[in-house]
Amino acid sequence: MRKITTIKLELSDWLYNAGIVGIANIFDANDVEYTKGLNYIEFEDSALDDFEEKYFKYFIKKYEKFTSWYKLISFQDYIEGFNINTIAEKDIEKINKYIKDIKKKLTSNSYKSGYLLIKDNKLDLLKEEKKLKKIKLTKKQKAKDAANSIQEQFQIIKAIIQYLKKDEVKKVILSKNIIYEVIQKFWSEVSFLNKNCSTKNMYEEYKSYFLDSAINYINEDKNKFKYSCFTCNGKVSNLEKTKAYTLTWINQIGVDMKRKTSHFWNFNADSFICPICNLVYSCIPAGFTVISGKGLFINENSNIESLIKINRHSLDHNSSFEDLEQETYYNIVENMSQSSVEHFQKEIENIQIVKLDSNNDRRPYTFNILSKDKLRVVSENKNRLKSMIKIHAKVGNKEYLNLYREVLARLYDGKNQFDLINKLLYLKLDEKFNRIQFIDMILKINNSFFEGSDKGKMVSYKTIDECRKAGLLLRNEYINKNAKNKLGGISYRLLNALKTKNTARFMDTLLNSYMYLGKQVPMAFVDALKDVDRFQSIGYSFVLGLQGEKINNDKEEEKGEVK
Length: 563
Description:
Elements: E1 6-10, H1 14-29, E2 35-36, E3 40-44, H2 51-63, H3 68-73, H4 75-80, H5 89-106, H6 109-115, H7 125-131, H8 147-164, H9 167-181, H10 202-218, E4 227-228, E5 235-236, H11 275-282, H12 284-287, E6 289-291, E7 294-299, H13 304-310, H14 321-334, H15 341-347, E8 351-357, E9 365-370, H16 372-380, H17 382-388, E10 392-394, E11 400-402, H18 403-412, H19 418-429, H20 436-453, H21 461-480, H22 487-499, H23 503-517, H24 523-528, H25 532-546, H26 554-559
Antiparallel strand pairs: 1-3, 2-3, 4-5, 6-7, 7-8, 8-9, 10-11
């Protein structure tokens, strides 16, 4: 009877935690049972049966639609919907671009190495690639004259696509795509990413290097082992390969212990890891979510449940890394299980945001910290933030600002929102942005930010609303006096003063405006002169009201949407 062994993986630093999340994601994608403790996962050794298959299955399921294989086979939809009777020059351009792309991919080294593993040899992709020719027209020919050439190329392309969609071919090519488009961004030089193993079966290589040694280690009697794993402190018999490993294969993380012994105490290299931890680190790519060479991992390690949940992303609705960031930051708050802000502030530790940029060879990883104060602001304003997700402001011919992204970026950098508010109000004056209810929301989010960073700079929400109403009242008075044409100039002068934090110029413009009506300036402005940030909050609220639109978004904020 087989002896059942239980493996327990406890949370540690961000790198190891990413590996643990990766293993959990792989298990979940393959319906493998495991237990979640407060700060660990636990599973029986049988969970590692055929783990190499489960490993690649997870990546293929998650990233299939982002691979070059998927882009190649997706052209079939275009072919099926193509009308040969209505050929235009744009069709020829699209077809030629596809032919260029597919020829490049089919002759790439990663695809060529994959062909050696495919037993189905009914189609030679390299021979088929040579048959593909771009559609060319003479100066006298029109697009419709290329009909026959297009049909010929379509026949070749359809044959290639049908072959690529075969189960065996698909599995090999997609695995190659995943290796070079996702996994290699995190680690290299070992297993199937060893340059001597590029033409070997990637499943077998993963099993041989990572899995077999881990399983052997699980079944060993460790009572007499004298070395300790650098990561989990588990016992290791000796420091030879298959018994202990280094971290040199993890990109820009490990130290070459043969040539860099000066990095260690007394020149004695001791950062060896056990086979189990070696397997965990191989799953780091599954802990991150990657789009176009950029990856994201949220190290929220208050408990394993939150850590796994926050890092679980469906890529169906995310077409860019920026979209992924937006969803992630919002999910951080949505996934918090605390029932109140007070509990939230007491229990949640600072959260580490780890970003990977694989194009940055010198510094691929960058780190940001989400403090309790920043998380509190997001939590308190999550409905306002949610309503901004799809709101854009046009700032140029082809340039747009996403309000949600802009607000969050300033929050997480510890900056106030005044520059964004100023820009949006200028756009409003130029009639390029009319959704001023969102400017009001940003003002209140900014005020919430000051509550955590410096309460002395905070203005009551009642005062913000009163100053906005004062601006609206002033506008109505000018309209009643047939002086509406003066409002634009007043608004521009006030915004310029706020932008440069020139309280004297702002008050001078305000005094003149009220003197024109024979009325007194509201006392809130006098009180605000004591602090420039309070002054800006009140000033922008006033200018917002001066735009002449009533704002009542309390119910909309509760729903998390704005009509």
